[in-house]
């Protein structure tokens, strides 16, 4: 079993211990406040030209970070990347993408459908309900387990007040992701109609992100009308959001990628794998990407990642680099381990052209080969051209 340990990177090659190292450098989002007032469209164009785009807010942790960073650096309001689209879509208030598996965001068992924009729940069915109606909030606490995760609040509230109450005291309003959770919520609610985290609105993010996170001021309705509008965070409301005319000139927040997060991976040499074998290298990179997809700092489509592999002499100065496209990494990667099945990699390694070529290099030569014979062998050999240790290769992260 080959074990990879990911942590903050400090390069320290140790060939005597029989370990191989490579470094991984990835971008992570930074935020820039532009104090020069612009319309929403002008701000959008500026951010796309100078950085990535207007800022997208994915969860309460990011919202609190923005508020902490910029609360004293503007007077009235700041543009963020949210604007009003035309087609309302149902979302869950709890916006953590890693909380939902495939199909769980759309586990809707409607009792009836109408024009209301907030979701209540009773006896296993969802109801489209006026957001101003009074219902008992059913909160969710991610720090608990089982039935204890769900807390029925004894006071009836409107949907927006219910969401704010649950975010303040727990995690958020409850999401219903599958039939098992539906059964638990029915047990906790005792047959009463309760607010869950379901809502519908037409708002879109400038960078096409799908974040359902919203942080409206208390008086803001979930969905008002189809009139064009853009969104700003307000200083007098502790950073909460409200609509503003898109032609109003305001300072704004950009999302940039101007710093790096470094990781180190240590490969134990006793696995019998050849770290210079492209099959082994590509398999390791794929497993790292798959692991990071569910980590605290997932690699996203468009993320830029640079890998530095050791040369054949294990010299840190002679490395092979792999470069992938632009990236976003949302938080620091905590120390964790990834297990690589060495047997399957070893089988692939033995059968790869590179492995065969390395093996032939290590066997003693009994006769000299003329340059013409070498050229003939290269033309007829199915192996790929040799790559120098310093060559930079590129690959694309699948969307």
Automatic annotation (TrEMBL):
Region of interest called Disordered, as start-end residue ranges on this chain: 290-399
C-type lectin domain location: 31-140, 150-255
Basic and acidic residues: compositionally biased ranges: 332-357
Coiled coil: none
InterPro entries, sorted: C-type_lectin-like, C-type_lectin-like/link_sf, CTDL_fold
PANTHER family: C-TYPE LECTIN DOMAIN FAMILY 20 MEMBER A-RELATED, C-TYPE LECTIN DOMAIN FAMILY 4 MEMBER K-LIKE-RELATED
Protein name per its UniProtKB record: C-type lectin domain-containing protein
Organism: Mugilogobius chulae
């Amino acid at each position: 079993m080959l074990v990879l340990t990911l942590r903050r990177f400090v390069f320290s090659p140790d060939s005597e211990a029989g370990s191989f190292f490579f470094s991984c450098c990835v971008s992570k989002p930074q935020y820039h406040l532009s104090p020069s007032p612009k319309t929403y469209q002008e701000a959008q164009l500026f951010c796309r030209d100078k950085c990535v785009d207007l800022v997208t807010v994915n969860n309460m942790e990011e919202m609190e970070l923005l508020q902490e960073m910029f609360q004293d650096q503007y007077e009235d309001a700041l543009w963020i990347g949210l604007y009003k689209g035309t087609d309302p879509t149902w979302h869950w208030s709890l916006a953590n993408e890693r909380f939902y598996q495939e199909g769980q965001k759309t586990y809707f068992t409607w009792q009836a459908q109408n024009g209301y924009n907030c979701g209540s729940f009773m006896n296993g069915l969802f109801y489209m309900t006026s957001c101003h109606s009074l219902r008992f909030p059913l909160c969710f606490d991610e720090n608990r387990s089982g039935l204890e995760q769900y807390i029925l609040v004894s006071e009836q509230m409107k949907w927006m007040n219910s969401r704010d109450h649950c975010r303040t005291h727990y995690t958020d309003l409850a999401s219903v992701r599958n039939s098992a959770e539906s059964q638990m919520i029915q047990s906790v609610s005792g047959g009463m109609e309760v607010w869950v985290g379901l809502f519908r609105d037409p708002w879109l993010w400038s960078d096409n992100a799908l974040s359902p996170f919203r942080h409206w001021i208390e008086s803001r309705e979930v969905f008002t009308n189809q009139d064009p509008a853009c969104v700003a965070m307000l200083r007098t409301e502790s950073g909460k959001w409200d609509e503003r005319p898109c032609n109003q000139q305001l300072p704004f927040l950009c999302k940039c990628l101007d710093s790096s997060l470094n990781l180190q991976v240590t490969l134990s040499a006793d696995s019998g794998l050849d770290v210079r074998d492209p099959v082994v290298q590509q398999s390791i990179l794929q497993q790292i990407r798959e692991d990071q997809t569910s980590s605290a700092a997932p690699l996203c489509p468009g993320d830029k990642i640079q890998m530095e592999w050791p040369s054949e002499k294990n010299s840190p100065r002679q490395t092979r680099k792999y470069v992938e496209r632009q990236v976003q990494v949302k938080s620091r990667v905590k120390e964790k381990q990834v297990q690589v099945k060495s047997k399957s990699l070893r089988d692939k390694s033995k059968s790869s052209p590179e492995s065969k070529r390395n093996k032939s290099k290590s066997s003693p030569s009994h006769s000299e080969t003329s340059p013409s014979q070498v050229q003939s062998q290269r033309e007829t050999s199915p192996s790929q051209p040799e790559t120098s240790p310093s060559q930079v290769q590129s690959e694309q992260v699948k969307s």
